[in-house]
Design a protein that fits this description.
Order of helices and strands of chain A: EEEHEEEEEHHEH
CATH superfamily of chain A: RNA polymerase II/Efflux pump adaptor protein, barrel-sandwich hybrid domain
Order of helices and strands of chain B: EHEEHEEHEEEHEEHEEEHEHHHEEEEEE
Strand content of chain B: 25-35%
Helix content of chain B: 10-25%
CATH class of chain A: Mainly Beta
CATH topology of chain A: OB fold (Dihydrolipoamide Acetyltransferase, E2P)
CATH class of the largest domain in chain B: Alpha Beta
Number of helices of chain B: 9
CATH superfamily of the largest domain in chain B: Probable tRNA modification gtpase trme, domain 1
Strand order of the largest sheet of chain B: 11-12-13-10-4-14
Distance between the termini of chain A: 31 Å
Structural class of chain A: alpha+beta
Helix content of chain A: 10-25%
Oligomer: heterodimer
Radius of gyration of chain B: 21 Å
Number of domains of chain A: 1
Number of strands of chain A: 9
Shape of chain A: globular
Largest sheet of chain A: 6 strands, antiparallel
Shape of chain B: globular
Strand order of the largest sheet of chain A: 1-2-3-9-8-5
Structural class of chain B: alpha+beta
CATH architecture of chain A: Beta Barrel
Strand content of chain A: 35-45%
CATH architecture of the largest domain in chain B: 2-Layer Sandwich
């Protein structure tokens, strides 16, 4: 399964390997934030809970929380963002991923939006 | 309850142009203002430092004072030397309160038979009432409601504005001139809020869009929003009213003692003089300093500052990412014992300790044109 799903807080999550979710912020979120200048990533092994704080993304103007779209343990963080935070702006839903998590409850994905639902959702925000 | 979103926002004479340029508009001091254009804050900031940026600052309060004994009358409200301000010159000063705190910071220009003031947008109503109450009745005060204010800032600003107004080449930093731009009277100062050379141009609202378009048509001029205005002034070490200075900070604590001339220090005669003059002599417990966080994490306003042992010694008042510095920059107040450049500090950012040190301001050298 490689379908991307989205949260109401504009995180995305994609399953590229069984039980492992890759997490980032959406293209819409990066546009809203503007130039990303700093990303604080979770430590490897950190246990995160769906909807809980997992990372921080900072634009020139402000710091924003990144919430965990699913629960589990962090197994990898995208260290490229430490030196090149602008990757989030350049490729939010690809190279600009934040971290990977070993899911403890894959059924949590069902509560998230697919791309069509998310597109409708952000149109409703404008 | 009235919330921000319920508030009816005022718009500047350039509102239509901002929309056309694709600006993201945000509420600021009761106005709908452009925080950034499609290029984004980083590029706008860097463009201003390398070429020229055009800012709409029409939200700021513009006042004209006239009347007998005007300079001496205004000096009863500010510690700045207004009597020594020559015609055609501008000066930065402060409205102080009886506790020595700062009611607002402002620019005062001498127009010969009048003084032209520029005050902070969010303070305009308060300042008008304060000035009216503190100035004699024979001083006439006019709020220039429909007047626009544009700032053109950056190393290419003089060349760009000179194409329309060659006389600006004769001006130096903090000069004030009233010039005619094809029959339209414009009040120009060679000053700004970026640390760069540049101008602020006051003109009737209905003329502002035409001037803005002509400047923006030039290849070296790009629009810059409030987002980059903030990062530019922070790198330049310039105070933001309401963040770095307010009614609870004195000019001495804020490191703005340079705004008080020798004569004013000797004579006093401004609100809070007793406290401010004593602080000049005896020092203060805390002082505004530049702070350079180590690493890459920005430290924002209200971040707690501790010494190397973890004792709380102050708070960040402005902080963020400095695009020209290429890293985080901040200003804040620390105990005077920790105010020397090079002093190590610690910042508590999201519960984690980050190293930092006190540095001399500004972060980016000022490039004012002080001789022509």
């Amino acid at each position: 399964m490689s379908e991307t799903r989205y949260t109401r807080d504009h995180e995305w999550v994609r399953i590229e390997e069984e039980g492992i979710a890759t997490v980032g912020i959406s293209e819409y979120a990066q546009q809203q934030l503007g130039d990303v200048v700093f990303v604080e990533l979770p430590a490897i092994g950190k246990s995160i809970v769906q909807g809980g704080e997992a990372a921080v993304v900072e634009s020139v103007k402000a710091a924003s929380e990144v919430y965990a779209p699913v629960s589990g343990a962090v197994i990898e963080a995208n260290d490229a963002l430490t030196d090149t935070p602008a990757l989030v702006n350049e490729d939010a839903e690809g190279e600009g991923w934040f971290f990977r998590v070993e899911m403890s409850d894959p059924s949590e994905l069902d509560s998230l939006m697919d791309v069509d639902e998310y597109t409708d959702y952000i149109q409703g925000l404008e | 309850m009235v919330t921000d979103s319920d508030q009816i926002l005022l718009s500047t004479p350039l509102a239509a142009l901002h929309r056309e340029l694709g600006a993201r508009m945000v509420p600021f001091a009761g106005y709908s203002m452009p925080v950034q254009y499609p290029e984004g804050i980083l590029k706008e900031h860097l463009h201003c430092r390398s070429q020229a940026g055009l800012f709409d600052v029409s939200h700021m309060g513009q006042l004209v004072l006239r009347g007998p004994g005007l300079a001496a009358a205004l000096e009863r409200l500010v510690p700045g030397d207004i009597q020594a301000l020559a015609p055609g010159r501008q000066r930065y000063t402060l409205l102080t309160n009886e506790d020595g705190g700062i009611i607002d910071d402002l620019m005062v220009a001498n127009g010969g038979d009048y003084l032209a003031l520029v005050v902070n947008a969010a303070c305009t109503t308060k300042d008008v009432a304060h000035l009216r109450a503190g100035l004699p009745d024979e001083i006439e005060m006019t709020l220039l409601d429909g007047q626009a204010l544009l700032a053109l800032q950056g190393p290419a600003a003089a060349k760009a504005l000179g194409r329309l107004l060659p006389a600006v080449a004769e001006m130096r930093f903090m000069d004030y001139r009233v010039l005619s731009l094809e029959g339209v009277e414009v009040g120009i100062t060679r000053s700004g809020y970026t640390g760069e050379d540049g101008f602020e141009i006051s003109l009737p609202g209905q003329e502002a869009e035409n001037l803005a378009r002509r400047l923006l048509d030039m290849p070296d001029v790009a629009p810059v929003g409030l987002g980059a205005r903030d990062s530019l002034r922070l790198e330049a070490g310039l105070c933001l009213y309401g963040a770095d200075i307010d009614a609870t900070t004195t000019p001495v604590e804020a490191n703005l003692t340079w705004t008080i001339s020798k004569r004013r220090r000797a004579e006093g005669g401004f609100p809070g003089a007793e406290i401010i003059l004593r602080q000049i002599k005896e020092g203060t417990v805390r002082r505004r300093v530049g702070i350079r966080p180590a690493g890459r994490a920005p430290a924002r306003a209200h971040t707690e500052i501790t010494d190397a042992d973890g004792q709380s010694i102050g708070e960040i008042t402005s902080g963020g990412f400095g695009p020209s510095v290429g890293g985080p920059v901040a200003m804040g107040y620390v105990d005077t014992s920790h105010a020397e450049p090079g002093t190590p500090l610690r910042l508590m950012v999201r519960g984690k300790v980050h190293d930092a040190q006190v540095v001399a301001l500004p972060f980016v050298q000022h490039r004012y044109v002080t001789s022509s």
